[in-house]
Design a protein that fits this description.
Penicillin Amidohydrolase, domain 1; about 20% strand; disordered N terminus; eight-stranded antiparallel beta sheet; alpha+beta; Penicillin amidase (Acylase) alpha subunit, N-terminal domain
Length: about 800
């Protein structure tokens, strides 16, 4: 059985015996002291962990399962509090530690919990993938047991908060599900615009890419639809109440920018003759580190790269056979269904011409310092019921591919990591629900791209608006991954994805209409073919490219002359090259100008009572409207545009003076665009004291540069997200590969690896991704050995 008696584990914990025969070289074994550790049952054999000079653990095991056990162990060693907090969130156990303000989040987790056959879910992964997933969980628990035996090993948060980490269970992880609440909110927001007769405003805020018609379902009461229809999910979507909440515009900005860049070059287009694969996933920056780098080695497995702490496996990296990367593809995976209740029995809803009864679950949420919250959870054939309103004979249910059979992500990366080639990789992604552009390049010279993820087959609608849940619009199944678009060895010799609309012409399968503006892709598309033989250094330079297409387009629209503050702003911008450099003043002025134009366009285009529904202007929509002014700007659009630009130039100059001082020669964008890493619980004074912020530097780049480093509108210009992890892989020349991981490998302020990659990340100084035994041993800094109890 996978479940292990916790008390027996604690009683049987033993100190590790030193190894007489080690898996590293004899010279390394003599030069590095063995860091004695305790272990618990779970590992099948001895596992050696070599930490290199950057804190990257190289795990050497005698089985694949033990390699993943080692990954779970080192992730818990370096990020235990962060993954423990997420485990509590996923399993609905926050309030029992942090009190009543967290009960809504727990209720949301309970609502989304998978209540089917968890043994069948694990079995569906396949025996090898299941063993590795369970071994990872055992590795996490091994580290927790070790910390229980020696509390000095616990992260500092536990002593401050008087907590102890929870032991993990693979079944609880498989049952805990996440969905894209923001996608559901978009559908409800559009319904409100439709009711107001102003769906045209959606093109200002969130233009559809590719375009699609809005067709409200017949008989749907648009006036009754509101954010409250998402019930507890709407409350929980605002974020955990550890500090200030992100406002609607900020949330929208984060959702719009969460993406990535990736490109793959065939050997015919590289200086070495080997393929290159580059990837830099974009995610929120400022709190817990979103990536942890590890190297897993065992017979039949040699794998390195970055994983999400708490998710087994490697998300971006390479094996000894192939490299793989990922960016967000776009698939609309959720829907909102409006149900009609039976007025004589509100536990029934109309479906396919009759009345169908809800499934009900009674549950409770433990709350520190308060009685448990008793909750009633309902579900329809579509999915969880978020609102049950008998007074109006109405209910709301949601559907998501992540809530049904096979919807867990917990085994998805392990399955990919165990693949051996393109064909087995494509079979493995059948266990990968999230929408992803999968990039591939192997040592035989093959390169490939495949769109993967679970795509619902809809009936009678395109998913842009809520629909009735009477059976007329139910899902008809999930499209097979094999039927999704892909390319193997394209004639061009290169391909890239940057969250742009990359659906091939003629593809008619399910998709989303939320692809990003193509600014980053346009730049990548211009740079890659320009040099016939690309190098690793070329890809590194492109990952840090700060050319801004929106800036160049806006500069072309500025007037030839202006007076006063507007004239001073115009003079600074006229000689600027459109690169968002950190050490220049013009980029800071440009960002102020964009903010001012945003404000004026919102005031001009959006009635005040609708600004909660349209809180910002999409960057591409903004430029298009200025380039092609139309009657939305009034009877004389060109004249209004001219007045708006003149006024915005003056306002930007004053804003820059206020933020950066009266001397324009001292202005720098990086003084405003700070990279600040703070603990998510820093509102607690003891946490803030124990975890000083990492915030000594700023950076260039912005939302639309390839070096994507975005900020949220309306507040500070601090970096809110971007590429915290970057890698460029020399496929087959593995030791030439490079990476960065912000701010470092460890979250512990007592570790030298908490922030040792912060300054290199700011400077764009990529670090070696050591892979061969010789390279790893040469840079080894510490050695740990784990062994099974009684070994």
């Amino acid at each position: 059985m996978f479940r292990i008696n916790r008390r027996r584990l604690l009683r049987s914990s033993i100190a590790l015996a030193t190894l007489e025969t080690v898996m590293c070289s004899p010279a390394l074994a003599r030069s590095l002291p063995l860091a004695a550790r305790r272990n618990v049952p779970g590992a099948q054999g001895r596992i050696e962990i070599i930490d290199d000079h950057l804190g990257v653990p190289h795990i050497r095991a005698t089985s694949k399962a033990d390699a993943f056990f080692g990954q779970g162990y080192v992730v818990a060693r370096d990020h235990l509090f962060a993954i423990d907090l997420d485990y509590r969130r996923r399993t609905g156990r926050l309030a029992e530690s942090f009190g009543a303000p967290f009960a809504d989040h727990d209720e949301a987790s309970h609502l989304l919990r998978y209540r089917g056959d968890l043994e069948a879910e694990l079995a569906a992964l396949g025996e090898e993938t299941r063993r590795c997933l369970e071994a990872y969980v055992s590795g996490v628990n091994a580290r927790i047991t070790e910390c229980e035996a020696d509390p000095s090993l616990l992260p500092l948060e536990y002593g401050i908060l008087k907590l102890r980490p929870l032991h993990w269970d693979a079944r609880d992880l498989m049952a805990g599900r996440d969905i894209a609440v923001g996608n559901l909110e978009e559908k409800i927001r559009r319904a409100a615009l439709a009711h107001a007769g102003r769906l045209d405003l959606d093109a200002i805020c969130a233009p559809l890419r590719p375009p699609a018609p809005f067709t409200p379902a017949p008989g749907l009461d648009l006036a009754a639809i509101s954010p409250e229809d998402l019930g507890i999910l709407h409350k929980a979507a605002k974020g955990l109440p550890f500090g200030s909440l992100v406002d609607e515009a900020g949330r929208r900005t984060d959702n719009a920018n969460a993406g990535s860049n990736a490109w793959t070059l065939a050997g015919a287009h590289t200086a070495s003759g080997r393929p290159i694969l580059a990837n830099d996933p974009h995610i929120g920056i400022g709190g817990f580190a979103p990536r942890h780098v590890a190297h897993l080695t065992a017979p039949g497995l040699d794998l390195i790269g970055a994983g999400a702490p708490g998710l087994p496996g490697i998300m971006q990296g390479h094996t000894d056979r192939f490299a793989f990367g990922r960016t967000n593809f776009h698939i609309d995976q959720e829907d909102v269904f409006i149900l009609t209740l039976n007025p004589d029995d509100p536990e029934q809803y109309r479906h396919n011409g009759g009345w169908r009864r809800f499934e009900r679950h009674e549950d409770s949420i433990a709350i520190a310092g308060a009685p448990p919250r008793q909750i009633t959870l309902r579900s329809s054939v579509h999915g969880p019921v978020t609102r049950h309103d008998p007074a109006h004979n109405r209910a709301v249910a949601i559907a998501s591919v992540h809530l049904g059979e096979g919807g867990s992500t917990m085994g998805s990366m392990v399955a990919i990591n165990l693949a051996q080639d393109w064909d087995s990789l494509i079979r493995a992604v059948a266990h990968h629900p999230p929408p992803t552009n999968l990039h591939y390049a192997d040592t035989s010279g093959n390169t490939g791209w495949h769109a993967i993820g679970y795509a619902p087959e809809r009936k009678g609608h395109n998913g842009l608006l809520p629909v009735p849940g009477d059976g007329s619009f139910d899902w008809q199944g999930i499209r097979a991954v094999a039927d999704m678009p892909s390319i193997l060895n394209p004639k061009a010799g290169w391909f890239a994805s940057a969250n742009q609309d990359n659906v091939p012409e003629g593809y008619t399968g399910p998709m989303a209409h939320s692809f990003s503006a193509p600014f980053r892709y346009h730049r990548i598309e211009a740079v890659l073919p320009a040099k016939p033989r690309q190098t690793i250094a070329d890809s590194v330079a492109l990952q840090h490219d700060i050319y801004s297409e929106p800036a160049r387009r806006l500069l072309a629209l500025l007037p030839a002359q202006a007076e006063g503050d507007a004239g001073l702003a115009l003079a600074m911008l006229r000689g600027w090259d459109g690169r968002i450099a950190g050490d220049k003043g013009a980029p800071a002025l440009y960002e102020m100008l964009v903010s001012a134009i945003q404000h004026h366009l919102l005031e001009t285009l959006v009635p005040e009572n609708l600004r909660k529904l349209v809180p910002l202007v999409d960057s591409e929509a903004l430029l298009t409207l200025l380039e092609q002014p139309d009657p939305r700007l009034g009877p004389d659009p060109a004249a209004l545009r001219a007045r708006m630009l003149d006024q915005a130039l003056g306002e930007a100059w004053q804003a820059a003076r206020k933020a950066l001082g009266d001397d324009p020669s001292s202005w720098r964008w990086d003084k405003l665009h700070k990279v600040s890493i703070t603990h998510p619980l820093a509102a607690i004074p003891a946490i803030a004291k124990a975890f000083p912020p990492i915030d000594t530097a700023g950076t260039g780049g912005d939302t639309s540069t390839v070096m994507a480093r975005w900020y949220r509108p309306g507040g500070s210009f601090n970096v809110a997200g971007g590429a915290s992890y970057l890698m460029v892989v020399d496929v087959g020349g593995w030791d030439n590969s490079v990476f960065l991981n912000l701010p470092g490998q460890s979250a512990d302020p007592r570790s030298p690896h908490r922030q040792d990659l912060y300054e290199p990340w700011i400077a764009g100084q990529m670090q070696p991704m050591l892979f061969s035994t010789e390279a790893v041993d040469k840079h080894a800094a510490a050695r740990t050995v784990l062994s099974a109890t009684g070994a």
